[in-house]
Amino acid sequence: MSQPHALKGIAAATLAACALLPSTAFAAGYQQPPANILKVMRAPSLPGPSLSPTKDNMLLVAWQEYPSIARVAAPYLKLAGTRIEPANRSKHDTPGGYGIAPCAESFKLVSVPAGKETSIALPAGACPDAPVWSADGKRFAFANTTKDAVEVWMGDAANGKIRKIPGIRLNPMLNDELQWMPDQKTLLVKAVPAKLGAAPAQANSQDGPSVQDSGGGQGESSTYETRDTLSSPHDEALFDYYGASQLTLVDATSGKATPLGQPAIYDSVGPAPDGKHILVSSVRKPYSYVTTYERFPHQVDVWNIANPGRVAVHAIASLPLADRVPVHGEPLGPRDFFWRATEPATLLWAEALDGGDWKNTVAARDKVMMQKAPFTAPPVEILRTAQRFAGLDWTERADTALVSEVDLNKHWRQTRVVNVDQPQQAGKLLWDLSYDDKYADPGNPVRRALPSGERVIQLDGDAIYLSGGGASPQGNRPFLDKLNLKTGDSQRLFRSDKSAYERFIGLSAKGSGSFLTWRQTPAEAPNAFLRKLGAPISADKGEAAFASTETAVTHIIDPTPELRQIKKRLVKYKRADGLDLSFTLYTPPGYQEGTRVPAILNAYPLDYADAASAGQISGSQQTFTRLYQYKYLLLAGYAVIDQASFPVVGNPKAAYDSYLDQLKMDAEAAVNEAVKLGVVDPDRVAVTGHSHGALMTANLLAHTDLFRAGAATSGSYNKTLTPFGFQSERRSVWEAPDVYRKVSTFFYADKLKTPILIMHGSDDANPGTTPLQASKFYEAIRGNGGTARLVMLPHEPHWYAARESNEQLVYEMLNWFDKYVKNAPPRAVKSAQSQPVPAQP
Predict the structure, then answer these.
(1) Would you call 691 a catalytic residue per the annotation?
(2) pLDDT (tens digit per residue) in 789-824
(3) How is 596-622 classified by DSSP, letter by letter?
(4) Where are the alpha helices (DSSP H) in 688-789?
(5) Angle between helices 771-783 and 5-18 (to 10 degrees)
(6) Cis peptide leading into 374, omega within 30 of 0?
(7) CB hemisphere CA count around 88 (13 angstroms)
(8) Which of 798, 805, 818, 834 is catalytic?
């Protein structure tokens, strides 16, 4: 029997790939890396903290590192940007569509500050989601996914006991499925409607042709708005069926369920602080086959539920289909609805004044509107922003908020302190800086939960607290500051020590002068500590002005002590044009200084509007060492040049005009510096990258002689297949055809002779990195006589989730790099391009 053309292509590709490695590499099923690597990959995961709003308890939540392939392979539907498992109505992936929705492995309740631990007995086979604390800290709720439902569970913070709320099946398809009402005694949930019946069946014959009509109007749909779109009337019927939910109030004590309104396709849902009003957004028809549900028509209403049996509806906005929004733009009409945290029921939203298009020059890009209950008077405009509105942060003071705006054309942001009730006043300018400038980042305001559950910026007189990552030329050193909003004076209360990575996680009781941190070092596992401020001290600029004492709250142990032999260091150097760059250099266990070893360079290119920000250092060398993907090869004797700076600097309006030239400079500088240190063998260097980093990998192999081999995972190699933008490139392929072609390695496949391993998830949901990108790129290399291996991981999305898939990935990389890098014969002749470039003064 002859094979279909598609199967012939797959068979040919498989046979061609099989010739590259020994036959033992092609046993049926999944392969595994060596035992020492496998042991580390299967070690228990480390927990993270979920602090209660009252700060007297925390939950330590450990997330499953790698689910089984059986879970990843569970059947699902692709419906308008969502992936839903019909068997239990669970979300198959994370909100961005890049990975499988994770399960918590364990919950442990810890009292603060005593540190008393209470293990929580999760049900057998449980797949819990993140816990949601009540504002009074007495309870926590969580969704639990089972074989046939997404359940609601309740936990008691006094004793750690948990129980299932019977009779409720959640519908998490469009988010906001589980939240506390302001009384903190009731949950608002999206439930699967009762008596829904069977799902729509596919007709035995086709429903007819799938028809789309542009209508001749002009307008773009961004590449990233086209994930898993609907494609037929049957898809529409399935979206209606699985998207429908019943809003329901659930008594947290008795479990009594009270339905609100009628079932509909609800997406955004949020209660007002008074607990009597709910903001309800519902999806309406007509649907689109070119974009996801977020751009479908929407009806935005406010429900008055003072009498749950007779819900009163106040219409706020009817939003039309928005399938022609400019790339990186905003739809016309009201958007970004939110409640005023310090009033009972006051609704706000933003509206574009520039047609939603960043290319247009206008005096003001956005306005912010406000409407108060009972929503019978027209809304009033309270402020305008010169650039794109980026949010209002409410403080504890009823009339005071921080308003932020961003300039996409300059990568700039401004934040002002405003009195929302006096809109004629411009407000005090608080911050005015590039959002690429990590060193100047002031941090994020520290918030607390009001009794209603609304989170507001905590005030201490006229001052607020700011917690930040603390990027610096020496790496990240998180901090806690106190900033007076009236005077602008700032005081540094705490900064992580240079020998540790310690970040703020919450203030303790108001006025106590103590706070909680999460601390780790390369040798010590992350743990929670209580710090208490002491006497003022003389401090250098940027250092803490107060002494502080620490007390351990948790006592998490190291699950992989063998990794403590791995050493890492921050390395700073310059690009050929003088730009400051950096990477973290990892050396394998037992490494002897002065020995040259094979190395793997990993990077991800980032776009910057100015050179000063591009050269800044991020990350920390003081974190507890954990391995993932390519880093597991440290246990096989490789050094790793990790998170090498790969900036692409230029005007955001033409971000990628010089992409390739800068990419080569970035790579040459990193390899030369690693060689100069005496650690890396210049003749045995590999390169790897994921997603946009995979395109980087392919381009470096095609356009330089720096590397002996590469591994590209989940990449996009032909940008003409993403014609309406990629990364921060906002021009279409018709506006900048030469740029799209030049950055696409697909068009240089005839030049790519360095061995490349191409790996991709066969169910990649990222519209910019569809699986077609990998298969066509492989075919292009193979057809031009290059050396390549294509590995498609079944059922995997953009990020690989399953244990079997990740073990296969490490196995593939190790075999590939051992053959073409570690054990490769010396190059017969080195081109001038492959020689280290002299370091710039």
Answers:
(1) yes
(2) 999 999 999 999 999 999 999 999 999 999 999 999
(3) -EEEEEEE--EEESSHHHHT---S-SS
(4) 692-703, 737-743, 771-783
(5) 60
(6) yes
(7) 16
(8) 798
